[in-house]
Amino acid sequence: xxxxxxxxxxxxxxxxxxxxxxxxxxxxxxxxxxxxxxxxxxxxxxxxxxxxxxxxxxxxxxxxxxxxxxxxxxxxx
Length: 77
Prior knowledge:
Blueprint: H1 2-29, H2 35-76
Helix pairs in contact: 1-2
């Protein structure tokens, strides 16, 4: 289970960091000649933070999600 949690955190944070830094770099700077370098720099800084945050908070968010969904399902029945 721990291996799955680590792999999930790495993969999910990779995808989110890639897309979010790409989007925000483009929004803030536009397509500059050095866009790829600027995006890569933002990504390199963001991914370790995102991976750590994902690993630490994913179990808590998962439990909160279960509570919210269970409450919502109980009220809709």
